[in-house]
Amino acid sequence: MHHLLAAWSPDTFPQLIGAAAVWAFLGLILLIGGFKLFDWVLPTVDFSDALNKDNRAIGILLAGFFVAMAIIIHAAIA
Q: What is the pTM for the complete model shown?
């Protein structure tokens, strides 16, 4: 994708949008997969039930997890 950014022009704009969509989809799939793995590793915690009960500690834990996963996925993709 870096070669597309270096030669950006209105003609390459659809390719840039397509590449961004593919990478965004891949990142989202990896983020969801990472959460599913995290949920599988900690079977004693029901994250959705805890969030529905307004458990802020679980919310903070998941927010930190998603930020950390996003940083890791960004580094892997870039």
A: 0.70
Q: Which domain holds residue 56?
A: 42-78
How many domains does the chain fold into? 1
What 3-state class would DSSP assign to 8? coil
Q: What are phi and psi of 9, to 5 degrees?
A: -155, 170
Please report whether residue 52 resides in a domain.
yes
Residue 56 forms part of a structural domain = yes
Q: Confirm whether 49 is domain-assigned.
A: yes
Distance of CA 11 to the CA centre of its chain: 29
**Largest Cα span, the chain:** 53
Tens place of pLDDT per residue across the chain (78 aa): 555 556 667 777 888 888 888 888 988 898 899 888 988 998 888 888 898 999 999 999 999 999 998 898 888 877
Residues 61, 37: Cα–Cα separation, whole Å = 15
